[in-house]
UniProtKB/TrEMBL annotation:
Domain tRNA pseudouridylate synthase B C-terminal: 188-230
PANTHER family cross-referenced by the UniProt entry: PSEUDOURIDYLATE SYNTHASE TRUB1, TRNA-PSEUDOURIDINE SYNTHASE
This protein's name: tRNA pseudouridine synthase B
Active site as annotated: 45
Function: Responsible for synthesis of pseudouridine from uracil-55 in the psi GC loop of transfer RNAs.
Superkingdom as given in the UniProt entry: Bacteria
Organism: Kitasatospora cystarginea
Swiss-Prot/TrEMBL keywords: Isomerase, tRNA processing
Gene3D superfamilies tied to this protein: Pseudouridine synthase (3.30.2350.10), PUA domain (2.30.130.10)
């Protein structure tokens, strides 16, 4: 029986609307689920829409591991203007005629931003610098630098290229792209860096996240739909979808529930493995460490 005031254990896959912060979505979900124990995996800027994975109750403990999975985005990049935020919500800081840039140069620039790269996040990102959010430092007028960090862009594909004219009359180019990348990749920074490489500047004008790990838009629900009916993916189903599965016997389940180490299953997996008992109950996330399976999060006991 559930304790009074607790919500359902599981994940809610939200199709976040434009204009709402990830924190705002969490606040709405706390009300809908009837619990304070709600979190999200991977922040989306207010301008961005799409897949936001919400954890409720015990499933919040899955979120840190889900944040490490690959993500897919659809975006529009404008070449010809820089903005202070690297997206359309910020003030334009420079403009340059981009009309003469050929597709071959754009593809060459994109190739430089594909694979394992070093990336400097946008200064208005939520990244912490010495324990303080970068965007807070910007608002307070601080002069600081963010060190580059390693990230992986698995694919960076242009689907459409259009000539356009910006509000200030600058001839620009708009690119519709799809990016598949590792966690921690900033799509705004890709737009900025592509524009810098081409010598005309660049920023993001639209961003939609279409997938986080195994969870895509096909399983996402709008907040309006969730207001009518709260759709929660049970924690066992969520774990089975996101991580490699290891089914153990009753004796192994007893040992694991009592905090004992298990012999590694030998799956050769780099990362968490979801462990299930003979009745199909989700017990824990473990990682293979040599001959042992080391628990990283236990959900029973």
């Amino acid at each position: 029986m559930k304790r009074k005031g607790t919500g359902p254990d599981g994940l809610v896959i939200v199709d976040k609307p434009e204009g709402l912060t990830s924190h705002g979505v969490v606040a709405r979900m706390r009300r809908l689920a009837g619990t304070r124990k709600v979190g999200h995996a991977g922040t989306l800027d207010p301008m961005a829409t799409g897949v936001l994975v919400i954890g409720v109750e015990r499933s919040t403990r899955l979120l840190g591991h889900l944040m490490l999975t690959a993500k897919t985005y659809e975006a529009t990049i404008r070449l010809g203007q820089n903005t202070i935020t690297d997206d359309r919500e910020g003030e334009v800081t420079s403009s340059a005629d981009a009309s003469g840039i050929e597709r071959e140069r754009i593809e060459a620039g994109i190739a430089k931003l594909t694979g394992e790269i070093m990336q400097v996040p946008s200064k208005v990102s939520a990244i912490k610098i010495d324990g303080k959010r970068s965007y807070h430092r910007v608002r307070e007028g601080e002069d600081f630098e963010i060190p580059a960090r390693a990230t992986t862009v698995h694919s960076f594909t242009v689907h459409d290229q259009r000539a356009a004219v910006a509000e200030d009359g600058t001839p620009v180019i708009d690119l519709d792209v799809t990016v598949e990348c590792s966690s921690g990749t900033y799509i705004r920074a890709l737009a900025r860096d592509l524009g810098a490489d081409l010598g005309v500047g660049g920023h993001l004008t639209a961003l939609r996240r279409t997938k986080v790990g195994p969870y895509g838009l096909e399983s996402a629900h709008t907040l309006e739909q969730l207001e009518e009916k709260l759709e929660v993916l049970p924690i066992a189903d969520a774990a089975a979808a996101a991580f490699p599965r290891w089914d153990i016997d009753a004796e192994q389940a007893r040992l694991l529930s009592n905090g004992m180490k298990l012999k590694a299953p030998g799956l050769g997996v780099d990362g968490p493995i979801a462990v299930f008992d003979p009745e199909g109950r989700f017990l824990a996330l473990v990682e293979e460490r040599g001959a042992s399976a080391r628990p990283v999060a236990v959900f029973v006991g």
